[in-house]
């Protein structure tokens, strides 16, 4: 009577092997006509591979072999997909058209909308944005540019070990998403490239960004209205404008930002380190429960900054009081050097002062001299060693 059980236990590993290998189907984009020559338009082939993976009732892998694949603007829709486990495994490089106008008005280059359970793993996305940046630097009638990789209204997303180069606009954007993990990202664009934010998150919850390296011309990570439950750890930023919550408070009715942890980050030669910025206009927006912990600042212009009268162009600034209420923000173990004398610049709103701002173990120097702190409309506490002093 022991036999059936024994047989079963012997057969079980084989059964699992059989089931797991049989339950994923691989779709190679080359089988759908994609050409790794960098000049044949492979957009249709990628969309066909997506349609096949999406129609599969089993989990599916879309495989992109080595080589360069030219893609125009492409939208990958998930609302009719029959499975919620599609992996896009990339060994090659996806290249945007060299003429920036081809995707420059599309808003996004590679857009995923209403997908559930999509993993993108490996590979390089080359946005070829340099000619658009040059256009913007010299003319006024240039297209706005496309975000390289955007997810809208999507859930359960993983992006790992992906490289994004020279995006026209933002590199990666999440809007209206739940539960996303981005890991081992490498993002790179020139320090002077306009609006090339590394990762932009808004209206999204449960987003984790780990172990990533971001060098760009705007914010390394920007966090917009309605972002909550974010965890950012082990990120190096620079060049760039730092890790920013904002800009917030342009709209009167605006969802707030809450529960954000930014931990173990390094900023090198950036314009800002840890920044919160809001427009000086009435708004019911807010920022609360933010922990900035263990940051190294290397030659950063404003390592710790709250700017509630943000207006980068200094043109037609609203010049009212910001309505965005900022509370419960902790800066813990923030060390290093600033490249301007004011290393802590906390300028809160007259109409809606900041509260619960905590500085704990902060040591910032201005080259080899003491730095300064400047604060307005702020309540909170300092504890442990805090230099520069004088704010809280
Ligand atoms: C805050 O966000 C973290 C993820 O970063 C999450 O684990 C935690 O549950 C959130 N806390 C609350 C109270 O929602
Ligand atoms: C952060 O990086 C350190 C050193 O590379 C590593 O030991 C640690 O596991 C990383 N943590 C996370 C959450 O990625």
Automatic annotation (TrEMBL):
SMART domains: PbH1 (SM00710)
GO biological process terms on file: carbohydrate metabolic process; cell wall organization
Signal peptide from the UniProt entry: 1-22
Pfam families cross-referenced by the UniProt entry: Glyco_hydro_28 (PF00295)
Residues forming coiled coils: none
MF terms (GO), sorted A to Z: polygalacturonase activity
Record key words, sorted: Cell wall, Cell wall biogenesis/degradation, Glycosidase, Hydrolase, Secreted, Signal
Residue numbers annotated as active site: 241
SUPFAM superfamilies registered for this protein in UniProt: Pectin lyase-like
Family stated for the protein in its record: Belongs to the glycosyl hydrolase 28 family.
PANTHER family referenced in this protein's UniProt entry, alphabetically: PTHR31375
Protein name as it appears in the record: Polygalacturonase-like
């Amino acid at each position: 009577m022991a036999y059936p059980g024994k047989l079963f236990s012997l057969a079980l590993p084989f059964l699992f092997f059989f089931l797991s290998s049989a339950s994923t189907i691989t779709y190679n984009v080359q089988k759908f006509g994609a050409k790794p020559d960098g000049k044949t338009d492979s957009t249709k082939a990628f969309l066909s591979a997506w349609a096949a993976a999406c129609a599969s009732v089993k989990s599916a892998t879309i495989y992109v072999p080595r080589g360069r694949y030219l893609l125009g603007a492409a939208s990958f829709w998930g609302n009719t997909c029959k499975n919620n486990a599609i992996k896009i495994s990339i060994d090659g490089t996806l290249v945007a058209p060299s003429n920036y106008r081809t995707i420059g008005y599309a808003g996004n280059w590679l857009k995923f909308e209403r997908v559930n359970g999509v993993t993108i793993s490996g590979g390089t996305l080359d946005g070829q944005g340099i000619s658009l940046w040059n256009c913007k630097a010299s003319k006024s009638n240039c297209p706005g540019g496309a975000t390289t990789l955007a997810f809208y209204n999507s859930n359960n997303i993983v992006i790992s070990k992906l490289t994004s180069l020279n995006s026209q606009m933002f590199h990666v954007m999440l809007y209206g998403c739940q539960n996303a993990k981005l890991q081992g990202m490498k993002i790179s664009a020139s320090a002077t490239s306009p609006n090339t934010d590394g990762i932009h998150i808004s209206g999204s919850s449960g987003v984790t960004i780990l172990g990533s390296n971001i060098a760009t011309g705007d914010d390394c990570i920007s966090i917009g209205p309605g972002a909550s439950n974010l965890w950012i750890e082990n990120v190096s930023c620079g060049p760039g404008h730092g890790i920013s919550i904002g800009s917030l408070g342009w709209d009167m009715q605006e969802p707030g930002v809450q529960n954000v942890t930014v931990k173990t980050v390094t900023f090198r030669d950036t314009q800002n380190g840890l920044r919160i910025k809001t427009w000086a206009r009435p708004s019911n927006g807010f920022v609360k429960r933010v922990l900035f912990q263990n940051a190294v600042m290397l030659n950063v212009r404003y390592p710790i900054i709250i700017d509630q009268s943000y207006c980068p162009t200094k043109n037609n600034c609203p010049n009212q009081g910001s309505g965005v209420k900022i509370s419960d923000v902790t800066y813990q173990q923030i060390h290093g050097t600033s490249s301007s004398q004011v290393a802590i610049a906390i300028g809160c709103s007259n109409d809606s002062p900041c509260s619960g701002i905590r500085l704990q173990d902060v040591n910032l120097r201005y080259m080899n001299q003491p730095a300064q702190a400047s604060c307005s409309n702020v309540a909170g506490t300092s504890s442990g060693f805090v230099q520069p002093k004088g704010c809280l």
